[in-house]
Design a protein that fits this description.
The chain has 89 residues and is mainly beta. It has no helices and seven strands. The protein has strands at residues 6-8, 17-24, 28-37, 40-46, 52-60, 65-74, 77-87. It has a seven-stranded antiparallel beta sheet with strand order 1-2-3-4-5-6-7, with no helix packed on it.
């Protein structure tokens, strides 16, 4: 199991986006941006060396369910994709 701890800058009043950073145990430091787009949160990120980059979409389906889709690249090579369904209990 992989754990990723995010440090998220608070949204400014009226803003639809903010920055985040994390330190992934495998990939190292990552820096990204969350963007609110209707019923979804979009995220894009890179490593400081630009070796890793990726994107993710977290879409709210209803009050208890979310769909997550994402991909990660190492330089120009696709190394991972994911599709998750999350349910709040």
């Amino acid at each position: 199991m992989t754990h990723n701890r995010y440090q998220i800058e608070p949204f400014s009043p009226g803003a639809a986006s903010t920055h985040w950073s994390s330190n992934n145990p495998v990939l190292g430091a990552l820096r990204g941006r969350f963007v609110i787009a209707g019923d979804a949160i979009l995220s894009s990120y890179t490593s400081p060396t630009l070796r890793y980059r990726g994107f993710e979409c977290i879409q709210q389906r209803d009050a208890r369910r979310y769909s997550v889709r994402g991909a990660m690249l190492e330089e120009d090579k696709l190394i991972s994709t994911w599709a998750l369904e999350l349910t709040r209990t």
